[in-house]
Design a protein that fits this description.
Elements: H1 2-14, E1 21-22, H2 24-31, H3 35-47, E2 51-53, E3 59-61, H4 64-75, H5 78-93, E4 96-103, E5 106-113, E6 128-130, H6 135-142, H7 146-160, H8 164-177, E7 180-183, E8 190-199, E9 202-212, H9 213-216, H10 220-237
Antiparallel strand pairs: 1-3, 2-3, 4-5, 4-9, 5-6, 7-8, 8-9
Helix pairs in contact: 2-3, 5-10, 6-8
Length: 248
C-alpha cells in the first residue's frame, strides 16, 4: 500500500509551473516506471478526479487541488507548521532559532524559540526590520524574483553603503551555498546562520540560528547543518519540492 502511495505522490511531483501538463511517457520517465504501469496509475488518478486528460492527450492536475489548497490555508499557518522543527533546532544548537518572512523591503519576525539567553533586543515576534543587513536579510534577498531583487538590492545598497555589484555577488554565493553566515553584521558580538524556507517553490521565509559569536564560531559547521535541515523540513511541510541541503 505504501508503495502505491509513494508512486501517487511521485506523479503529483512531476507537475510544476514550468510543466503544468505532461504526456504519459513524460510521467513514466519522471517517476521511473514502465509506461504500462504509469498508464494504470494515471488512469486511477483520472477516475478519482485528481488528474484531467486534455484534448491533446496530455494530463494536468485537476481543480480538486484548489479546494484542498484552500483547506490547507484554513487549517495551518507557517508558525504552527514550523514550531516543532524550530524547537528541535533550538535544542540541538543551544541557541535562539528565529522564523522570518519577507514583506516588501522588510523582514518580519514571526516566531522565536530561545533555549539559551534572551535575545529580545535582537528579535521579537511581530518586529519589522529593514531587509539590509544580517544572515536572514541576505537569504531573503538572495531568493527574491528578478524585478523585486533589483529594487531591494538598490535599497539595501543605499542604506548600507555597500556597492550593488558587491552585494549581488554576495547574494549569488548565498544562493549557491543554500545558506548565509554573518558575524557582528547587525549586532556587534552576535553571529547568525540562516537558511531558506520554501513555500511551494518560492522562498518567502527563512530560519536563522543566532547567538554570541564566541559560542557560535566553534560550532559553525554544526549550526549550518541544523539550520539548513530545519529549513528543508519546514519547506517539506509547506509543500515544497525536495532539494539538496548544503553539505558541510
Amino acid at each position: 500500500m505504501m508503495r502505491g502511495v509513494g508512486r501517487t505522490m511521485a506523479v503529483f511531483d512531476c507537475f510544476s509551473e514550468d510543466r503544468p501538463s505532461l504526456n504519459l511517457q513524460s510521467i513514466a520517465n519522471c517517476v521511473g516506471l514502465p509506461k504500462s504501469t504509469a498508464f494504470r496509475l494515471v488512469q486511477s488518478l483520472v477516475q478519482a478526479g485528481y488528474l484531467v486528460r486534455q484534448d491533446n492527450q496530455a494530463y494536468c492536475l485537476s481543480p480538486k487541488f484548489l479546494r484542498l489548497a484552500r483547506l490547507v490555508g484554513v487549517s495551518h499557518d507557517v508558525r504552527g507548521l514550523a514550531r516543532e522543527v524550530m524547537e528541535q533546532a533550538a535544542m540541538a544548537s543551544g541557541e535562539a532559532v528565529i522564523l522570518n518572512a519577507v514583506r516588501g523591503r522588510e523582514r518580519v519576525c514571526l516566531e522565536v524559540i530561545d533555549t539559551s539567553s534572551s535575545l529580545d533586543s535582537i528579535a521579537k515576534p511581530g518586529e519589522h526590520i529593514p531587509l539590509v543587513e544580517g544572515a536572514t536579510a541576505k537569504v531573503l534577498l538572495a531568493f527574491l524574483p528578478g524585478s523585486d531583487l533589483k529594487e531591494a538590492v538598490g535599497y539595501a545598497s543605499m542604506v548600507s553603503g555597500q556597492p550593488c555589484s558587491q552585494l549581488l555577488s554576495e547574494l549569488e554565493r548565498v544562493r549557491s551555498a543554500g545558506y548565509a553566515v554573518t558575524h557582528g553584521e547587525r549586532v556587534v558580538g552576535m553571529s547568525a546562520v540562516a537558511a531558506p524556507v520554501r513555500d511551494s517553490d518560492d522562498v518567502r521565509y527563512c530560519i536563522a540560528i543566532a547567538g554570541p559569536t564566541e559560542r557560535m564560531t566553534p560550532r559553525l559547521s554544526e549550526h549550518i547543518r541544523i539550520a539548513t535541515r530545519a529549513g528543508e523540513e519546514v519547506s517539506r511541510r509547506l509543500g515544497a519540492r525536495a532539494s539538496h541541503a548544503a553539505a558541510v
